[in-house]
Task: structure prediction
Amino acid sequence: MKKAFKKVFHVLYSLRVQLFLVLIVVGIVPLYFLSNIIINVHNKQIITSREDELKSYGTVISNLILSSDYLTTHFDSSVETEVREIAEIYDGRIIIIDDNLRIIKDTYNLEVGKTLISSEVVKCFYSAESIYTNELGDYIQITMPIVSSDTLTVKGVLVMSFSKKNINLISSKVSNNIRMLMVAISLVIILIAILYSIFVTWPLKKLNKNIDEISNGKMEEAEGIRGYEEVQSMADSFNTMLDVIKSQDESRQEFVSNVSHELKTPLASVKVLSDSLLTQDDIPVELYKEFLGDINNEIERMTDIVNDLLSMVRLEKNNPNMTITNININELIEKLLKRFRPIASSRKIELIYESFRPVQADVDEVKISIAINNLFENAIKYNFDGGWVKVALNADHKFFYINVGDSGVGIPEELQDKIFERFYRVDKARSRETGGTGLGLAITRKIILLHNGTIKVYSKEKEGTTFTIRIPLNYAAGETEDNSLEEGRDDNNA
Ligand code: ADP
Result:
């Protein structure tokens, strides 16, 4: 029972069913009331017109009675004929009463000579203008005074009762016709309601089917959905969403294939090295050490790749944890640069730091350190021995800017957009040599975006490269802008 009730309730929650029911209620219920009103008005109208007809016949009979002095003579052929004919035509009874309340004529011949005292009859004697109409079951009774036109006195009373059978027959015929019409109109309304509710919900069903198919791995665009503007805009949004999912899917596949490719090279090296050790006999210890050293290097490389991948994945989570603190950026840069001094001096690269003003900003210290470190590391890695790296820090009332410039190999103009992609490397061999994973700039860019900042690159081949980052001094969660690369490259703020 409960289940059945739930099922009915569930069906009622369907837009199609609701729309259908609303159309039925709005279309058919008023129609039902309207037809009843029409039938009633029509019935009343027939009865009133019949009453009017009878009243005018009553006046004719009254005039005949008075002119023939029927009330005293109790006989006149024209009165008799008229009364009999009218009573026959209308299937009724006519009684004539004199001023002593005595019945002098009864078309049924049942009450002649008797006295008739009814309130209507008595009231007629008091007022020459009163006509009373009563409905007695299937009969209409009209009681009207017979008034002398000279003296205006009531000489007698005419009581006419007529059967409504005839009227009822006509009105039931009319009612039947109206009801049949109503049924026909109702059927048309039901048909329209069914078609309309299907028409409105069909595009939604189709869209729903497309959405369901996504979970089965079938990513088909919702095409040919025609309907209301709202439904069409929903279909457009669905298609846009599908494009995003498709491109995410493609990028995921590309990412997986890149990762496999990246790991395959060191794995292949390890395999070759270990195979050659295993297949050769009497290998000198030095060769063993050398090969194991190479294997160790490859393992280190794989570890770097895996570590970078893990940081990447953590940053790309929908809600990466941001531990924001207000720190002194000048001190942070100095601390980070310090670590690079030994390697820079080993390659005779000059490290210059220029700070234009003290800067306090809201940042996630660990993350921003990784981002800045990557830029410093690249500036040294892709530099010539004896070159320079210039770091500059500046700020205005809203942002702080860090410039990392170098005198290194530079990046060809057409590849400058690509360097922020995962695993993209301009010179694969050089990057591998220097232990690069191709993930550094992708990680840096992600971190800058998480700080609602932008990163831009300016570079000339063989002359050098400058990275400029701009980050708001005050952190506002949830405002990440992902347009750092599209914003144009010549707006150097620092
Ligand atoms: P990698 O681990 O290879 O350094 P990155 O993502 O940090 O990866 O950098 C991507 C590529 O961009 C590098 O392989 C390099 O070709 C280029 N690149 C990055 N920084 C510089 C720079 N300062 N000078 C020249 N080329 C650079």
